[in-house]
C-alpha cells in the first residue's frame, strides 16, 4: 500500500470513529494521478459536478437592477425559509441552523421585485416565519467571508442575480482582505444561466467524489452512493 492510500485509509478510519456515514471530496479535474488514486484504488465515485465562478471585487458591478429590493433576514427567519425551499436538494445539511449562526456568516438576504413586496419592514424584531410569503420572482442568499450560497425562483432571475452580484461586491469591500466574490453551482443548476459573465471572471470545474465509510444507522434505500450522480446540491460553506 502506497503512502497516499495509507493517508486515505487513516482519514476514513478517523471519520468512522467520529460517526460519519460518508466522506466527500473535490478532486482537480486535470489531476489524473489523484483521480485514479481515489476512484480506482479507494472506491470513490463521482457524485456531482460543480462549477466555481470567481471575480475580483473591484471589477464587479455595484448597482441594483431597476425595481429590485434586497432585504436582510434574521437567523430565525432564514432557517425555516431554507428548510422549506431547499430541503429537496440531493444534498442538504441537517444543521442549517449552525451554518447560519457561524461567526463567518455575514448574513442572509432576500432579493425580490419591489412592487410585489415581501416582508413587513416595520417588523423590527424580525422573528416571524416568512417562509410562506414569497413573491413571484425571488432569491434567498447567504454570504460568508468565504462563500455565497443562493436559491432563486421566478421569471426575473437575471435581474435578481445581477443585483445580488452587485450587493455582494459592495459588502465584500467592507470585509478585511476580501479580494474576490465566489459562487459554486451544480453543472446542471439552472442558476448558471443567470450569473453575470465577464472577461474578468474565472470559471473552474469542481467535481465532487463520494464514498460510504460506515453502514450503521441507515438502510440501503437511503444510500447516497447508490443514487448515482447528484446534480442539485447545497454547497456547505464550511467546506472551503
TrEMBL record:
This is N-acetyltransferase domain-containing protein. It comes from the Eukaryota. PANTHER family: ACYL-COA N-ACYLTRANSFERASES (NAT) SUPERFAMILY PROTEIN, N-ACETYLTRANSFERASE HLS1-LIKE-RELATED.
